[in-house]
Design goal:
CATH superfamily of the largest domain: P-loop containing nucleotide triphosphate hydrolases
CATH topology of the largest domain: Rossmann fold
Structural class: alpha/beta
Distance between the termini: 80 Å
Strand content: 25-35%
Number of strands: 27
Number of domains: 4
Helix content: 25-40%
Strand order of the largest sheet: 7-15-11-12-14-9-8
């Protein structure tokens, strides 16, 4: 197979030793669809004799059945492993391949060119140090070339190779190459790349892949492989300040307590002074432990267990950092986010944020602007759609230790997870902590929720009425409050229409505005619960995610979801406000039940069927539930 097959047979330990000592370059191939990314990687592997004989036989066989090159070998099939990719002739998922030469080891990520799969491309770029940007010589710089270049820049890649491919189809014309190079350099001038190398190639014919091509005598630069073998990608992380996110507290017995993780930056030695964050407690490194024995030093990229000279409280999710230059600590950040879900992102909606070593609740509190990746223009927006890039503020449930992404990719990166589906919906890069996060602190208040509740002799709770417009939410909620008032209970009713005359006067009825509407109401309801009140809220609140957000704002047992279940046909017959009539006439946009969805509660605490029950009977049932559960009196 490969260039070192003899050495593998004769001296396997020697071969492994040489592999261990070689430097490793991670790079990505990207660009627009059909620019030749998979073909290029296949050509690199084939010409370097880096494939096994059985792989070669399978490639030749597949090329005849599935290839696009007639009787010739289709090199793209070495990489496009998914059946759907082979059928369509495109790359859908990210394909990783390892190979090595005499001088270097490589891990290459072949990423999709289609705009639909930009999220996959961002995944491949997140760990790369260099990007090979493929450009079709016949088409020049395309929209997806610009999009991928921007994302490559966003994800911190500083070294770019612009491989102007299919030069054989333009007769190896130097003028064509020069125009494309000039166009790309002009476009990329503000993207922050440290170096851009442009090469004229033909991945299919092999021009300038391994060796300089006779077809381009006017080109005096290196071949692609020569450049990949010699490009200097500075490992700044070894020279950075020491950082180690703690993945595991290693406690095999009573006599040993260490902290395990992968070093994200810098160098550490026994005796170094460290600070545990976010607690801020300091100690000294005692030992650096590995399976092969203790180390005198460890560097970025190594996985180790550290023991300390002092017993200080450190848990998974903490970061051990250089005491002299610790990382920052905050719970609110400015960040850039690449949205990866078909479901839009709305500010205020709760998500799970996964950092290097922990997952915690949070929300995107503000979308400052969306970035047009084709023009670099900043545009106002209320949501992010699939493949959008936005500048946002995020708010987490607690402090985390961090470095800006531009200084340390591992310490500044996070992914966003949907709380309902557990799917990854976005990726983000921290820019800086928000100053207001360091200026605001919780003020201790001596008269708390317990004192307010005791004064009123009741247990505070939120009764969250949800249902379609016209279902009877406000009617039933109003009757419940009247009955509670008669019983001497302390209540307040937050009604959807009334709140939109004041607190939420600035909000419309788009999905984004509905999310913000419920977020604000949830916060007000929480304050009223803290005041010891029984709070009744009457809102359509169409989304499961936002109703869950409102529930999680208060403590367990302080939220009762009341589903006023009325078929839309019945709601229309009760159309007191004439809203359904206007919606059917197209006079009202984003009307729930028509052109805006209503997500029914899956497991409401109370299910009220208004077809079977009158409003009076429903109110009696709800008050009886409150009495049965002990909300109308304090426990003795």
């Amino acid at each position: 197979m490969a260039h070192q097959s003899d050495m593998i047979e004769e001296d396997i330990l020697g071969y492994l030793k040489t592999q261990e000592e070689k430097s490793l370059l991670r790079f990505i191939t990207c660009g627009s669809v059909d620019d030749g990314k998979s073909t290029l990687i296949g050509r690199l592997l084939y010409d370097s004799k880096l494939i096994f004989e059985d792989q070669l036989a399978a490639l030749e066989n597949d090329s005849k059945k599935l290839g696009t090159q007639g009787e010739e070998i289709d090199f793209a099939l070495l990489v496009d492993g998914l059946a759907a990719e082979r059928e369509q002739g495109i790359t859908i998922d990210v394909a990783y391949r390892f190979f090595s030469t005499d001088k270097r080891k490589f891990i290459v990520a072949d990423t999709p060119g289609h705009e639909q799969y930009t999220r996959n491309m961002a995944t491949g770029a997140s760990t790369a140090e260099l990007a090979v940007m493929l450009v079709d010589a016949r088409k020049g710089i395309l929209t997806q070339t610009r999009r991928h270049s921007f994302i490559v820049s966003l994800l911190g890649i500083k070294h770019v190779v612009v491989a102007i491919n299919k030069m054989d189809l333009v007769n190896y014309d130097q003028n064509t190459f020069d125009k494309i190079e000039a166009s790309y350099r002009e476009f990329a001038a503000d993207l922050g790349f440290e170096d851009i190398t442009c090469l004229p190639i033909s991945a299919l014919a092999g021009d300038n892949i391994l060796e300089p091509s006779e077809n381009t005598p006017w080109y005096n630069g290196p071949s692609l492989m020569e450049h990949l073998e010699t490009v200097q990608v500075a490992d700044d992380m070894q020279n950075a300040a020491f950082r180690m996110p703690v993945q595991w507290v290693n406690r095999p017995n009573l006599d040993f307590r260490g902290f395990s993780g992968t070093i994200a930056g810098g160098t550490v030695r026994p005796g170094d002074r460290i600070r545990a964050l976010p607690s801020g407690k300091e100690s000294t490194i005692d030992r650096i432990v590995t399976q092969d024995g203790d180390l005198t030093q460890a560097i970025a990229g190594q996985s180790v267990t550290i023991t300390l000279a002092d017993e200080i409280d450190i848990s998974r999710g903490d970061v051990i950092a250089d005491a002299g230059s610790p990382c920052g600590v905050s719970d609110q950040f400015a960040a850039r986010i690449v949205w990866m879900s078909d479901e839009p992102m709305y500010p205020g909606r709760p998500y799970i944020f996964k950092t290097a070593n922990q997952s915690l609740p949070g929300q995107i509190s503000d979308l400052k602007h969306k970035i047009n990746v084709n023009t670099m223009e900043k545009t106002a927006a209320k949501s992010l759609e699939l493949n959008d890039v936005g500048s946002c503020n995020i708010s987490l449930s607690k402090d985390i230790a961090f470095d800006p992404y531009g200084e340390n990719r591992q310490m500044g990166a996070f992914v966003i997870i949907d709380r309902l589906t557990n799917s990854t919906v976005g990726a983000g890069m921290i820019k800086f902590a928000l100053r207001r996060a360091t200026n605001i602190h919780w003020q201790a208040i001596e008269v708390g929720k317990g004192s307010h509740a005791a004064q009123k002799a009741q247990k505070p709770v939120v009764l969250w009425f949800t249902g379609l417009s016209g279902s009877g939410k406000s009617t039933v909620a109003n009757l419940v409050e009247k009955k509670l008032h008669t019983l001497g209970r302390h209540t307040y009713l937050l009604d959807g229409d009334n709140v939109r005359h004041g607190l939420n006067k600035d909000l419309g009825f788009t999905d984004a505005d509905r999310v913000e509407n419920i977020r604000r109401v949830g916060q007000v309801a929480k304050l009223m619960v803290d005041a010891g009140l029984i709070v009744l809220t009457s809102f359509i609140s169409p989304f499961i995610t936002e109703r869950r957000m409102a529930r999680e704002m208060v403590e367990d047992g302080e939220f009762i979801e009341v589903f006023i279940d009325t078929p839309i046909e019945v709601c229309e017959t009760r159309d007191v406000k004439g809203l359904y009539k206007k919606a059917r006439a197209g006079e009202i946009k984003n009307f729930t039940g028509f052109d805006s969805p209503y997500e029914k509660p899956e497991r409401p605490d109370l299910h009220i069927d208004t077809v079977a029950l009158s409003a009076e009977d429903a109110a009696e049932l709800i008050v009886a539930h409150l009495a049965e559960k002990g909300y109308l009196s304090l426990p003795t």
